[in-house]
Protein: Esterase
Amino acid sequence: MNGIVPSSRGALAVVLCGSLVFGCSTKTPPPASEPMPAAPAAAQGAALRFAVSFPSKGDAGSGTIDGRVFVILSNDESNEPRFQISIGLKTQQIFGVDVEGLAADKDAIVDGTAVGYPRATLADVPPGTYTVQAVLHRYETFHRSDGHTVKLPMDRGEGQHWEHAPGNLYSTPQKITVDPSKPETFRISLDKIIPPIEAPADTKYVKHERIQSELLTKFWGRPMHLGAHVILPEGFESHPNARYPLVISHGHFMRDIGYFREAPPDPNLKPDYSERFHLPGYNRIEQESAHQLYRDWTGPKFPRMILVEIQHANPYYDDSYAVNSENLGPYGDAIMNELIPYLEKKYRAIGEGWARFAYGGSTGGWESLAVQTFYPDKFNGIWAACPDPVDFHDYMTVNLYDDQNAFVTDQFWKKVPRGAFTNYLGHLSATQADVSRYELTLGTHGRSGDQLDIWQAVYSPAGADGYPQPIWDKLTGVIDHKVAAYWRDHYDLNHILARDWATLGPKLRGKIHIYVGDMDNYYLNNAVYRIEQFLKGTTNPPYEGEVDYGDRAEHCWNGDHTRPNAYSRLRYPQLYFPKILERIRKSAPAGANLKSFQY
Structure:
C-alpha cells in the first residue's frame, strides 16, 4: 500500500546509549562476530515505530532482499529527506536496521532498538510534524576465496552512495506528525526504485575504460571490474609515433571527469551557494575552471601527458585506497598489474617507472604516497595534498597506539570529547563519537560506505565473521590495540618508511612531495608534521623532497600559495604537470626519448 498510515500497533523503544560521550559503558566490546547487545529493559521508552515494506507487484521482484532499511525524518522541505543526511550541523535525522531475507509485503520494523543519528533513538525525536522517507539499501552475498561469506552493498555505478544507488527501493516522501511519548506505528511502502546510471560518452579527449580484473574476481567470487577515465594529450591523433608519460590522479569515485570541460560554462546555469567556501555561484566557478583546464590542456605550452582517473569503487567504499588488503582483496596488484598495463598499451604510454607519476588530495593524497611506498620502482614521484592520516599516532585527533578511548581523553577526572571536524577558526561541528554513530547508523559490520569504515576495511585484518576487525567500538570508543598494531605494521606510512628506509630510501629519493593546510578540517596536518620530522632527518640517503603548509588553509590545500583554497583545489593539473615535467627532465635515464611527447 502506497503512502503512510498510522495504526494502533505499538512496540517498546529501547535507548541504546543515553550519552555517547559520558553515558555509555566502557567495558571491552564483544568480538565482531557477536551481534550488538540489546539495550537493558530499564532503558525502554515509548512505542513510536515504523513498519516498512515493499509491494509484491512492484519493481523489486518476487525474491527476498538482504540489506539495511533507513527511515529519515526531516524538517527541511528543500529536498527529499534521503539527500539531507550528513555528518555536518545541518543534517536531518536517520535510523537504520539490518534486514535479511525480507519478502514482499512483509514488515521491516524500525523501532526504539534502531540506531539513530544524530538523535540516538526514536524516543529522542522531538514531537512535531516531519517529512518522512524510507530507503532499502540492498546487500549482495559474496563467497570470497578466503573462505568467508559476507553480505555487502555492491557498488552499482554511483560510487557507494546509498541515496543514489541503482536498485535501491525508496518511498514517496510524506508528512507525518509524531509524538514519541505515544504508541503509534506508521506504515511506509517502498513504492519507488532508483534507476540505472547511464555510462558517460567518449569525446576526442576523454575516454572511458572498464576491464574485468582476474585478481579481484577470484578474491570476491563474482565478476569484479576496474574502470578509468582517460584524458588524452593534445596532438595524440596527429602524433601517432609519440609515447607519453602516465599521470594518475588518485581520489574519490567520479562518474566522469568533472574538472575537464570542453564546452564553455552553461549560460543557463542557476547559481548555487557554497557553504564550505562561503561563495555564491560556486557551480559556475567550477565550470569556468574546468573549461580553463581544457583551454590550457589544448594550448601550445601545456605538458603532453596522459592523465588517468581510476574507478575502483567496491563493496566497502567509493575506492579501494589502491593497496592490497585482507578485506578488499588485491586492489593494489590489480591496478598495477592489470589496469595500468592495459591503459599504457592502448594509449601509447611509455610504460616505465621513470615516466609514471601520481598525485591526489585527501584520500588521493594517502593513495599517492602509499603506491609510491609499496611500489617504489613503479613511480617516479608523487604529489600528495592533505593526505589521510599518514601516521596513526595522529589518526585525526586519536593516538591509536597510546590512547585508550577514541571518543574522550583518558584523564581520570575529566573526559574531554575528541574532535573530528573543525573549520579554520577551530569551531567544532562533529566529534569522533558523532562520526562513529553516524557510520554505525548507516551500516553494521563496517558497511556504512563511509570514511571510518573504509579505513577499517583497508587497514584491519578480517575477523572470524569475515568482516573487518573494528579499530574501536562505535558505541563506547574503546580502542583495540591489537588491531592498531596490525595497522601500524601494514599501513602506517610513516612507520613503514622509517622501518624500511635502508631499502626504500634509495628508491624514493626526490620523489615525495606533501602539502597540507595547517588548519585542515580533519586535523590531517598533525600526522604530516610527524612524517616531515622523519623525512627531514633522513641522511642515508636524504629524501630530497618537499613538505609544505598553507597558513590557515583548510582541507584540501595542495601547495598553491597564490590562490584561496576554493580556487586552488580546482587546478591540480596546472599546478603539478609542470613539476612532473621538470622531474622527468632531471631523472630520465640516459637514452630515454623525451622528444616524442614534447611537441
